[in-house]
């Protein structure tokens, strides 16, 4: 892993200092790409998915260096799922064979989502607590677990994805602030607002 992180060494140079903490060029570039990605998602532009993949690789390096292993592993998942999501938005189909469109979860689907979240969070927290040296296993696990669910919902264009992202982003703001990743904390604060904007925009389209 050290060899992999060394590939990004030039980008870990300080771009500026924010609230007493150094902000790297890597974090700044990842932020810009992530904002562009969310903008594309809100407008249903499929190019948001490749931007998500690139941003995820950068955030993997940043989070691993900060010992946020759950969030780092999540970025690997995001990078892989971005390819799936891109294919879904380009050629995805619903159960009846029609083109993929924005839609609501069924009542059964909502219960399934809640159940998966309820199982995945403690399982992820236990793994991080048992097998890593992170000092925030349960708080790291929460956005990690729910982001898996949110990403699937987004890829399949379910409106509920935005509700999941609101929860993920609110918790992430506190987590990144605790780690001194102030620019990323600011980004996720914007994500909270953008998740609400996306929710309302998709509701209007629906």
Would you mind describing this structure in some detail?
- The chain is 73% helix and 4% strand.
- It has 206 residues and is mainly alpha-helical.
- It has one domain (2-93, 116-205).
- The chain is globular, with a radius of gyration of 17 Å.
- The mean pLDDT is 89.
List the keywords:
mainly alpha, 206 residues, 2 strands
Please give a quick description of this structure.
α3 (48-65) packs antiparallel against α4, α4 runs parallel beside α6 and α7 (161-178) runs antiparallel to α8 (182-205).
Write the layout of secondary structure elements.
Blueprint: H1 2-6, E1 14-18, E2 21-24, H2 25-42, H3 48-65, H4 69-91, H5 107-131, H6 137-155, H7 161-178, H8 182-205
Antiparallel strand pairs: 1-2
Helix pairs in contact: 2-3, 2-8, 3-4, 4-6, 5-6, 6-7, 7-8
Strand order in the sheet with the most strands: 1-2
Strand content: under 5%
| Average of pLDDT | 89
Largest sheet: 2 strands, antiparallel
Number of E-state strands:
2
Please compute the radius of gyration using only Cα atoms. Answer: 17 Å
Percent helix, as a range, is over 70%
Q: How many domains, as an integer?
A: 1
